Amino acid sequence: MSEIEREKFSLKHALAYSSGLFSDVLSYQFFTFLIFTFYYTIIEIPIDLMTWGWIIWSIWNALNDPMWGIISDRTNTKWGKRRPYIIASFIPLCIIVVLLWTPIRISLLSEFLYFLFVIIAFDTIYTMFSINQTSLFPEMFQSLEIRSKVNNVRQIFSVLALIFAFIVPSFFIPKYTDKQFETNYVFAGIFMAIVMAIGALILIKWGIKEKKEFSVSKKESPSFFQSIKITLKNRAFVCYAITALANWYVFGMLPTIVPLYGEYVLNIDNSLLQSILLGLAFLSAAIFVFFWRYITHKIGLRKGFILSMVAFIITLFPFMFISDFLSGILVFFFVGLGLSGSLFFRDPLVGAVADEDELKTGVRREGSFYGVNALVIRLSTIFIFISISLVFDSVGWRVFDPLADPATTSLGLRFLMFVFPAIALTIGIISMYFYPITKEKFEQIKEEVNKLHKEKAARVAGK
């Protein structure tokens, strides 16, 4: 029997590994959900200045994200390739999750500089943790069947983390846009940091099982700039990356705008109810994950992802006309259909790219692909805040004003919830159409990769 045929599914291992994804998603979505609302409505940094901050942050990511991936790929220690970085990063990440909400309140300049510093520090450490825990997925789980099963567990944990990130802050912060609750953001950060630490420790103790045969790749790994060049020449990866950029634009836009959309479009003056709507979308996404798994087995990753983006556009359309909490419950539930597709297809698609790349180069370079992928999806933040800046400037919201014209601000928020995301997803559909790894080609790739892994294992055993 081949290595892939002998591979068995272990629910215990899948749960332990997925706990790391829980901490990953929890930290980033807590950051995404409230960082804009906090610095825009509580600290009152003008939207134009915040947009420049996000642009600078994204330029740093042009080095930060691929850097960590490539460094990880080229690491070879007795503790493994990924484990040392995960251990080194999770405690600093927990600390920074608290520091996000403690700006220096001396002047607008001090507030902006602190904002810029803390988001850069957060992403630097977060990427060190995220790239390495994510890169373990295609390395530890080789067959499509096992990847699908583990991915189901991972995405359930991911959705639970999203719900946690959106719901729990409301228990600490009664109203997200009220300045009297500024300190409450710190308390929420402390609680989140504790939960993140628990998930990371479970991952480190029971979830990491690196394979020795992949460590032989170190000496053969290309340099930093060579790796980026090779990665960007990979047609399958480029097609996927453009689609990922489109999906993460939507994935980032929704939680960023929901606190304001809930208050100024749906007239919900309560942070818990606003969070419930967003949490409902991701709860339904956990249910729809099984639907996309079924679709994947029937039509493959490429066609399945395209179908999920079409569904996403359709389910976002009602945001243009709903105006109350009850309508919001129904709409946000069905938005989970599209969200679950974005969550489900990411890692299997990158895994397929890494498998194909290994056949060409002889090297496992998940870290490189995930690093450049992280760079690409972080660029979505630039587009998100340029979109928000354009809309807010046009409706008179350069600086947060709760008394601005409600009809104008409502229309602007509706556009940010549907029109801009629909354009992005259409671009993603077009790009994924040209993704060259079909269902049949992927099965062929796995057979050839299995042979290569047997050769690598033999080389390691012969040392």
What does it look like?
The protein is an all-alpha fold and 463 residues long. The protein has a single domain (13-210, 221-461), classed as MFS general substrate transporter like domains (Growth Hormone, Chain: A). Helix content is 80%, strand content 0%. The protein has 16 helices and no strands. It has helices at 3-6, 11-42, 47-73, 83-99, 108-140, 144-172, 182-207, 224-233, 235-264, 271-299, 301-316, 325-361, 366-394, 406-417, 419-433, 439-461. Helix 4 packs antiparallel against helix 7 (182-207) and helix 10 (271-299) crosses helix 12. The longest helix has 37 residues, at 325-361. It is globular. The mean pLDDT is 87.
How confident overall, as mean pLDDT?
87
Task: Tell me what portion of residues adopts beta-strand conformation.
Answer: under 5%
CATH architect. name: Up-down Bundle
Q: For the CA atoms, what is the radius of gyration?
A: 22 Å
Overall structural domain count:
1
Number of helices: 16
CATH homologous superfamily, by name? MFS general substrate transporter like domains
Give the overall form: globular
The count of DSSP E runs of length 2 or more, i.e. the number of strands, is 0
Head-to-tail CA distance between termini: 23 Å
SS class: mainly alpha
Helix content: over 70%
Give the H and E element order: HHHHHHHHHHHHHHHH
What is CATH's topology name? Growth Hormone, Chain: A
